[in-house]
Amino acid sequence: MATFLGLDYATWWYLVVGASFSGYAILDGFDLGAGAIHLFFNKEESRRTALNAIGPVWDGNEVWLVIGGGALFAGFPKVYAAVFSAFYIPFMVFLVALITRAISIEFRSKEPMLWWRKAWDICYCGSSILVTFALGLILGNCLLGLPIDKNGVYQGGVFDFLNPYAVMVGVTTLALFMMHGAIYLVMKTEKRLYTKLTIIVKNMTIFFVICILLLSFYTILYIPHLSHQIKSHVWLFGVPVIMVLAIANVTRSISKQQYLKAFFSSALTISLLLVIVAIELYPNLVLSSLNEDWNLTVHNASSSEKTLRILLTIAAIGVPLVASYTTFVFWTFKGKVKLDEMSY
Amino acid sequence: MSVEILSRIQFAFTISFHYIYPPLSIGLGLVMVCMEGMYLKTGNKLYETMTKFYTRIFALIFGIGVATGIVMEFEFGTNWAVYSKYVGDVFGSALSAEGIFAFALESGFLGILLFGWNRVKPRTHFLATVMVTLGSMFSAIWIVVANSWQQTPAGFHIVGSGMDARAEITDFWAMVFNPSSIDRVLHVWVGAFLAGSFLVLSISAWYLLHKKYIEFAKSSFKIALVIAFLSSWAQLFIGDRSAKVVAHYQPAKLAAMEGHFDTSAPAPMYLFGWVDQQHEQTHGLSIPGGLSFLTYGDFHAPVQGLRATPIGDRPGQVNGVFQVYHLMITLGTLMILLTTVAAFWLRRDTLFDKPWVLRIFVWSVLLPQLANQAGWFTAEMGRQPWVVYGLLRTSAALSEAVKAGQVIFSLILFVLVYIGLFALFVFLLNRKITHGPNWAAEEMHSSMHRDMAEHFGPTGETAGH
Known about the structure:
The structure holds 2 protein chains of 2 kinds. Chain A is an all-alpha fold.
């Protein structure tokens, strides 16, 4: 098998898919989180400010979902087919919530009536929670392993996705994004809303720390295959250690009111959580709970080497482009939110 | 109903609904580029007002387009898992290219287009408008390339057999420039220009009829009419080329489009008609030899009929394909007539004195929308029973793990959400149009009142776009 810098192309693409999911979680994570805590703000002015803090960027953030999905489709079509058809109901709920959310943001500001705006606020908050929870739920199920047969076809029941572990992962994801979103908002606001957010940020951080502790203990005790790699390679233990430090730094920066640092630390936390997932799963992408030989791996589920080369070329040209104009957009809208005639 | 029929209905429904919006974004984007370009060139505030007004409408359209577009990418995996496995190697690279080269570009610069007016220089803002429009046009390229590959597959070979059979790419550029890509991209682009420019024509005509914002409306009308006039004529030639490609690579589809059963010379072209699929006959008004001429430039050339294709490999709904195809042709012809006559009267300076013409233009917004939908129905129904032409049948492309009950659940969900969404869209679009282009300025004024009103409790706001 041909390699590039010591890694085969399928593994490279595994890293690219992982990086796009990370990028998605970090970027859409903060605007989903901001949505999930939206109803904590009572005043119309505060809600508008919170919406406009994500206004110019949320759409661009969501692009990473499309890129990640496309990357999975192109690089590992068997995984794409297996996972998406297995979780039919959660994905449909996810899609409808995603539509509702986009529409709530766009439609809310279009009419001045109070009832109109309140209704869209509830839709926006509810759908942000649902999107986040559904993502966590699906991730949790993938971590456990799926009942797939040798053709990658799901053999489980329609509602098997509702199990305690997956729900725990869902709640933890929600807590993580809420913390991440609150930190983003506190950076973008001032005056009364800022003061209110400083309290929300603290509470969300506590909520997340409790969730992640419970989830970690549960995983280590009851789901041995998810800590197998780290247990057998001592040097990999560094990854969770850095993650704990990153979480510690979130709380430290928050208490010192250095929110930019807190934001980068929570972004680091998100990516390290996914790095741990990637380490524990590799070389598998989807574990078959029926028979280990039916696992979908980086090698038996990937596209042809030719396609992987093409995809890596596309990524090598595209990612710097996307990164440059994303930076430009964030730079343009840096600083605290100012409402004007074109705002939501 | 079977999972196959339900999944097909769901895909057709979600994609048809989605396809109302992207062509409007592309077309309106082009109109906005023209308007903002004029503003930069002349410094005339009228053009700035125009750009800002249409930006607000653009935002509404774009938002729904993106939200409903993500659905399709997921549906490939949820409903069509076997298809996804079969084409992932080929189709996936086009889809990835769309995400990273096109979608990221338009969504990235959208923030600046919508919210950047007071944050960046006018030139930078213009750049953002151009980038968003280019991004949406690039999107069309990759999506149409992916679809064209399903129609006229190229640059691949099949590996494995039975359940494991799948297409693997052998030549990326041959896949991208498969035989129908270029003609179909142009066809879709021009269809989008028509959708966008007719929306502007409709809004402007409505203002003129109601004697509101006269200068604004006349100016917008002229810009949009130029685009609509050029596009509708261009579409005549591009559409003709597309039909020739279909005749060459998908003869059964062309035969269904014309209800042409016997391979005959000369082959007639129907202006309208009815296909009796059971007796394999077509009734209607036709031009003798018309199909032969349009396909091969010769009134006596033989054109392959449906009977040359085994029954199992023919489109199931011949009359359906025939009707949507002829609807598209009729609407295209109407658009050519309408824009040409209007352009003629505009030159003579009598156009805006004819209220009945303006009334037609108010409703003309439906022409390109219906034509675009009809065109896609022709392309997709005509391709049946294949999902990848000649290679993979639609009935074999389904997810094996998905039950009818699940698809019914999601289908009902989408129908309910989309009906609500469409009602809201029409309501908000209507409100925006009735509020008019000066709304932004009025808002600034009313926001001063709002600050005063805040002391007396919440009154609701009029700000926002």
